[in-house]
Amino acid sequence: MRKLIFFLFLPIFFLLVFPKGESMVLYFLDLFRQLLRGENFVSYYHSLFWRQYPIFVFLSFVGFLVLIFNKKKKEFFFLLISLFCYVFMVCFLGEVPFEKYVFPVFPLVFIISSFSLKQISSVLFKSRKNILFFVLVGFILVNGNKFSLKPKAFYSLNFDMREIPEIDYKGIYQVVKEKTTNINKQDLAIIEIDADAPAWYLGEGINGFIPRKDSLSAIDVGRGYNRFVSLDEFKKIQKEHRYGFVNLIEHNFRFYPEGLVEYVRSNLKLEKKQQYAPFSPDWNYWPVELYSWGFSGSDLNK
Questions:
Q1: What domain range includes position 60?
Q2: Which of 14, 171, 207, 284 is the most exposed place for a label (fewest CB within 10 A)?
């Protein structure tokens, strides 16, 4: 009874002493509403595993069947519950789907797949089961597209699912550097959804602003960067800074304040436009547009 009381009291105590207890309550309420609305990422992770790793999904299924037939209940339930809990969490409790969130699942999948290959080898070739096991593993490696036998100059982050924009930030900020060599940095504003990029290429102390429609206005997120949530706030930033650049990434348009993209395209000067990064494969399409204001010929409406 004492243990039951302890575990019931523990989450209440946690919410009371945790610095952001109220935020945690709101977070879990949002998750509960999300579950009631039927919002989940099952289709995303189904596409990831079934389209990109079908052989391992099949071998994992065979492995579970073998565990059942061999009456290895502890191993079966341990692996099944571990996989189910984690997959349920990323599918139903996550905010956004990402392949990196299921990385912890892969070791378990590979273990179960190896167990399946071992059992298949034992059934087909009892006297030379170890040799057949390595032959099957080698066959999967040679015929798959997940392993590289020779070094490559570039490894795409989006081989399985197109999630992370591959953009030539160095080329974009080279344009910014060339145009801002002789100006006061305090007069310059950089509008960029990724706060790390300007700090990396231009150094610390840049007046950077992050366009996010889902955040509070003027929240400092480090390195002096602030967020703005509306087109009116962007116009205010434009008035307060004589010079500025806006880096529009098509992949992130869904995060931008309403009307921002249309306004920038209509009123600012296009400095650089790129569909593919020079180092990225042809199929990796990530459009990006760099606009400016305050420089000679930058403001089209003046």
A1: 40-143
A2: 14
